Amino acid sequence: MPYPKILIADDDALVRDAVVKILELFGYQITAVPGGREALEILSDEYDAIILDINMPGMNGFETIQAITKRGLDIPVLFLTGAGTMEYAVKAISLGAYDFIAKPIDDIDLFEVKIKRAIEKRMFLIKEKSYKKNLEKEVKLKTKELAEKNILLEQYSHHLEVSTVNTIITLNTALEEKDQYTAGHTRRVTEYSQMICRAMDLSQAEISVVTRACQLHDIGKLVIDVSCIQKPGPLTDEEWTLVKKHPEVGENIIRPLSFLSREGTIVRHHHERLDGKGYPDGIYGDDIDLLTKIVTVADSYDAMTSKRAYKVNMAKEDAIEEMRKHCNTQFDPRVVETFIDILATRA
Fold it and tell me: Any idea where the HD-GYP domain is (predicted)?
């Protein structure tokens, strides 16, 4: 391990030489200069302590320590002075001096102790700086690793969500395909709802919610007897009660999937009415979410214009008239008029 290096600045050659000889006896490497400016010219972070005289011509000790502090080297500075006034002491401490050494040096042992402590402080500051630097590097590395893991986790979570939704949609599609009358219903309701959302300037996030809700809105029918859905005629009270459970059942199916909470609300309420006569909860007016109102209009229009086992499909014009007739009771008028404007532009 190399010997500690000390820089001394004192304009008194006799004092300077005496201090040098004492420190060399203790095994230190010494660089001695006659003034503050000379000290600053050779100053570097290789020094472990600095000894400054206070009263030096050109640049005194106080001016020198201020210049040293600006360099940010964290080297302890000891003042060597015979003018041990309280005023000097206060000023030196305020400027960041580590300690004082009185001259002439009468107590060699105390002198050595002060030098050793200054060098120990320097060693501590170097280790602390190295520790902080390594810690900062380690934190940056761990932060980067964590960010990368978070990205992978988000990607995995997204893929899992997409896979889950696609699985449910596949089951729903398989259900529709069993019935020639309902085949394509989900696709059409989704397309209609997306068009209404865009025409109403809804955000992409809201359109995504509506899209998933449409794809899942009839998933509750998976647990309803298909023969009941395909029955070519009026349903009995018991059958109708069973069919009316599909929104609630649908929400229950997707409820464990927390990322579909808003979609679940739409699934549950897509047969509610503005006048409160819908099902399953009988909510009304503004208690029904706008996205739900959109899906309700799209779903009802497709049901009216599609051929079913129990009825003949309506013409587009008749379905439009029916929707207008039920504005403010079953349907939201703003959503209906927006959809009608869209249908007017379609062949």
Answer: 160-347
